[in-house]
Amino acid sequence: MNLSSATKLAERIRAELAPHCDRIEIAGSIRRRRPECGDIDLVCLPKTGGKAEIVARSQQTARLVKHGEQYVVFELANGFQLDLWFAHSGGGDLFAPEPSNWGALLLARTGSAAHNIHVCTVAHTKGLHFNPHRGLERRGAVVASETEEVIFTALGLDFIAPERRER
Q1: How, if at all, do strands 90-92 and 97-99 pair?
Q2: Separation in Å, CA 15 to CA 8, 21, 107, 112
Q3: CA–CA separation, 75 vs 64, rounded Å?
Q4: pLDDT per residue of the chain (167 residues) written in tens, 0 to 9
Q5: Do residues 67 and 95 both lie within one domain?
Q6: Do 13 and 68 have their domain in common?
Q7: Do 7 and 162 touch, CB atoms closer than 8 A?
Q8: Are strands 39-46 and 81-86 parallel, antiparallel or unpaired?
């Protein structure tokens, strides 16, 4: 699908799901402004109980293809694929706090694959590991994950605009 059509469709879907989210952003090839887009990726931070509402609303007009703990994949009526990725707001307990993984999911789901490999490589050179579902880790503990900016800073990189993440 061309970028213009994919963007319009993604924006309509985002608007439909937004009431069930604290945050929702378009990711993937649309966010990178690729001329042709193979699917729609949305990263969502659901409100309490919102994940079930998002899935139920999506099933009204799309066919559920697969789901996991942090994602749901639908096939739209036009055959296009919709990938919904669910971030968490953070939490844990006083001794093991877990920050939100919003930035990690947005970064990983925006891609590109080559850019994600670059992020992983830079992390490795600094003794870190980039887990696309949790964030930047050091010995299993999350050190940066809440925003893309925080992750880039922790890697010693300037922020890289989505349009420049093709590598």
Answers
A1: antiparallel
A2: 11, 10, 21, 25
A3: 7
A4: 999 999 999 999 999 999 999 999 999 999 999 999 999 999 999 999 899 999 999 999 999 999 998 999 999 999 999 999 999 987 765 555 678 999 999 999 999 999 999 999 999 999 999 999 999 999 989 999 999 999 999 999 999 999 999 87
A5: no
A6: yes
A7: no
A8: parallel
Q: What is the CATH number of the domain that holds 36?
A: 3.30.460.10
pLDDT value, residue 89: 87
Number of domains in the chain: 2
> How many residues appear in the chain?
167
As given in the structure block, the two tokens for residue 127 are: 């003794």
Measured from the Cβ of residue 34, the count of other Cβ atoms closer than 10 Å reads 17
The tokens describing 90, both together, are 């953070």
Q: Find out whether 105 and 85 touch, Cβ atoms under 8 Å.
A: yes
Task: Using DSSP bridges, classify how beta strands 135-138 and 141-144 pair: parallel, antiparallel or unpaired.
Answer: antiparallel
What is d(CA 28, CA 110) in angstroms, rounded to the nearest whole number? 4
The secondary structure element, H or E, covering residue 125 is helix 113-125
Q: What is the pTM of this model?
A: 0.92
The strand pairing partners of 43, in sequence order, are 25, 85
